[in-house]
């Protein structure tokens, strides 16, 4: 880390810096960065802007920051709401911190830049198409033929539309996963009923894979391994709940149609 | 030759889900190619390692450690955090069928009552799911806990 | 939420308001409100009393509040001890906050009212009688006859007396649940030994149901679903421990008497 | 007619535990009647739904969602938080016997050694306990996560 040139910071400036640090951490955590990255990146910003030391306490849905400067300490806390995984935001925040570390940005510029980051999102139809293709590719990797591929594409593309629609209306993610899995299973059970393709059960298995909670799971283990046990357990718990939500959706669809995959 | 063709097929059809999930995660545009490469490398490497007789968990670990290391290189080169590529790259290796079979097995146990076969299937599939998941996620974390213990990667 | 009329708040007043907010949150959490209710109610109080924004971080046994007003932020933290579920207190606190929101109470009045809330409790013999009757009703719902009903009433009423006695002396709740389950199982095993009623095992199953940790369980899931994964896991863990405590009590009683319920 | 009588019996004997637990939770006096009504409605509704062939988990879900919705109405009417009525109302549906049998099964597994039958009983009862509990608690949360996503109920 670069050693910032010593400078005088007033009480107001210190408050401002602490606020920037807490906002950086909040944005990173909101958009799915692992705890170590959140901690490291935001404390680096604080040091770059001239604080003597930055202490951060992360919980599953809040961040508490203390900024020290010449014996004065300012503490603040923010509630962190999950805004969905967005690597674009994480990259942008990281870039701002790197620039600040090279002393290319001062406090005001950092503030300005942080506020200007918008949560970039891909065109929804592109996402629907690619996610449908992804699940179809899974069915191919598992050994399905082209009929299975096509059916999986249809089922998971429709499911993805439902998922986006519900997420757009700010529905609860667990509920969202349940409904999405229900739709995917309902459509793909048609493949089993009409016995399409070489292994119609594969359609049911592959079409719900768009619901794999990859980020929560991998972040959970990453947090665990790096000593952030509390946030790790929270992420693991959330991943489990999302899986349970999806499982309930699958169960309901199977109970209604009477079509079951394997076993 | 046949192995090579199947590896190419593998690589192609795992690059697609890597991109698909990268879109869900809103990975910046210029990183999408890297995600695709990562997904292709990881899954075909795993197939190759499994082909040489290693079990799926250890093969997954090898693949995810490789992706973790490649991720370190890319991360330093493009100055972005590592999860941006690595998570999407390992998604194609997520044990989807195992997990699905486990869940269906649990439902069957509940509805149809206990039977030793179903229980066996639940346990086998459940353990496979768990071990593969652990291998994947732990493998990704390995480079940063081994090499970059004291300083940030970027 | 009502928009409070703009007013000037001095530094001292801001401190007072933050203190009231943290006390509100603390009382709610102490008496068994779910995390979302704690967060929502106490931040509404802060806004009603004139703060610009209120940020709350809840952990399993502490609450941290930051109150912001025109760029000044004041942060404080309180340890939360479990004081047992008391919906009376939760209702009273909620009422005070609603009144403050309608601008019917100012800072001093809120303070006054909050301090005057006492943890109302029902007459203990009434509770013993009704809880005995509750467990007896369970045995009826499970298909027991009137002999089973009477035996369950006796066993669970005695167990409830023990539970109250231990709680009154501030014994550890897990220990309390173990002893209570032990007493209930000991008394109800008499029904099995002397083969009273149509299904004497029902007495053993129903008489320990007064120990169902309903609030921790339901609050846990509620917290999970609403994104408070950390507090949810803490509650779930507590509920599991209480069940384990009760199970140990049951196990000990069964080992001593040699009487076992089902299988 | 027989069904009706059994429903009345059900309603009466589940109103009592709802009040009993409401006393333990120190619910204010004037809300006790609502808890009793809630308990009676929930349990008899579940019995009715199960009578039409639905399994106990889904029937529990239906009942607890109903209580959750009624709770919203009462909560807005009497200006008190929802858990004040709803938790005591679902207590009569808590799967007490299933949980008890699971625990006894685990003890038996430990004392008497593993046997497939006991294992079967533990698993079946354990799964039933878990699913019913999840249905009950998730059902109560459903109205607030579906309808009141952005604003508080009271």
Structure description:
The complex is a heterotetramer, with two copies of chain A (263 residues) and two copies of chain B (154 residues). Chain A is mainly alpha-helical and 263 residues long. Chain A is 64% helix and 9% strand. Chain A has helices spanning 11-30, 35-48, 87-101, 107-116, 124-141, 146-168, 173-193, 201-207, 214-225, 229-257; strands at residues 53-59, 62-69, 72-79. In chain A, helix 2 runs parallel beside helix 3, helix 5 packs antiparallel against helix 6 (146-168) and helix 6 runs parallel beside helix 8 (201-207). The mean pLDDT of chain A is 90. Chain B is an all-alpha fold. Chain B has one domain. Chain B contains six helices and no strands. Chain B has helices spanning 2-24, 32-51, 56-78, 83-90, 96-112, 116-146. Chain B starts with a helix and ends in an 8-residue tail after the last helix. Chains in contact: A-B, A-C, A-D, B-D, C-D. Chains A and B meet through helix 2, helix 3, helix 5, helix 8 and helix 9 of A and helix 1, helix 4, helix 5 and helix 6 of B. Chains A, C: It comes from Alginatibacterium sediminis. Chains A, C: Keywords: Cell membrane, Membrane, Transmembrane, Transmembrane helix. Chains A, C: Belongs to the ThrE exporter (TC 2.A.79) family. Chains A, C: The chain crosses the membrane at residues 122-140, 146-162, 174-196, 202-221, 233-256.
Summarize the structure.
The complex is a heterotetramer, with two copies of chain A (263 residues) and two copies of chain B (154 residues). Chain A has 263 residues and is mainly α. Chain A has helices at 11-30, 35-48, 87-101, 107-116, 124-141, 146-168, 173-193, 201-207, 214-225, 229-257; strands at 53-59, 62-69, 72-79.
């Amino acid at each position: 880390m670069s050693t910032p040139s010593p400078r005088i910071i007033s009480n107001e400036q210190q408050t401002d810096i602490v606020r920037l640090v807490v906002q950086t951490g909040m944005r990173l955590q909101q958009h799915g960065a692992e705890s170590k990255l959140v901690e490291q990146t935001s404390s680096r910003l604080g040091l770059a802007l001239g604080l003597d030391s930055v202490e951060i306490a992360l919980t599953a849905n809040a961040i508490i920051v203390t900024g020290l400067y010449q014996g004065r300490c300012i503490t603040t806390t923010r509630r962190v709401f999950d805004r969905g995984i967005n690597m674009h935001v994480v990259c942008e925040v990281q870039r701002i911190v790197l620039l600040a570390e090279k002393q290319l940005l001062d406090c005001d510029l950092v503030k300005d830049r942080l506020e200007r980051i918008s949560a970039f999102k891909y065109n929804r139809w592109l996402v629907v198409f690619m996610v449908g293709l992804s699940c179809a590719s899974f069915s191919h990797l598992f050994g399905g033929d082209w009929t299975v591929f096509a059916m999986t594409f249809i089922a998971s593309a429709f499911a993805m539309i439902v998922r986006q629609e519900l997420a757009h209306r700010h529905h609860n993610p667990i509920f969202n996963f349940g409904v999405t899995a229900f739709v995917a299973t309902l459509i793909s059970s048609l493949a089993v009923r009409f016995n399409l393709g070489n292994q119609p059960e594969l359609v049911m298995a592959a079409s719900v894979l768009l619901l794999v909670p990859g980020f929560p799971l991998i972040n959970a283990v990453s947090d665990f391994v790096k000593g952030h046990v509390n946030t790790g357990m929270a992420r693991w718990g959330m991943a489990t709940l999302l899986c349970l939500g999806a499982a309930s959706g699958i169960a309901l669809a199977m109970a209604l149609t009477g079509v079951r995959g394997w076993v | 030759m046949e192995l090579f063709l199947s590896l190419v097929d593998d690589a192609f059809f795992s690059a697609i889900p890597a991109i698909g999930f990268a879109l869900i995660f809103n990975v910046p545009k210029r990183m999408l190619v890297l995600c695709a490469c990562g997904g292709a490398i990881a899954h075909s490497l795993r197939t190759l390692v499994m082909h040489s007789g290693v079990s799926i968990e250890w093969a997954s670990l090898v693949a995810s450690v490789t992706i973790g290391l490649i991720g370190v290189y890319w991360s330093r080169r493009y100055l972005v955090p590592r999860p941006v590529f690595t998570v999407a790259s390992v998604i194609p290796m997520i044990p989807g069928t195992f997990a699905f079979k486990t869940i269906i097995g649990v439902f069957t146990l509940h509805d149809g009552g206990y039977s030793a076969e179903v229980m066996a299937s639940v346990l086998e599939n459940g353990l496979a799911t768990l071990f593969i998941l652990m291998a994947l996620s732990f493998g990704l974390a390995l480079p940063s806990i081994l090499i970059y213990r004291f300083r940030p990667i970027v």
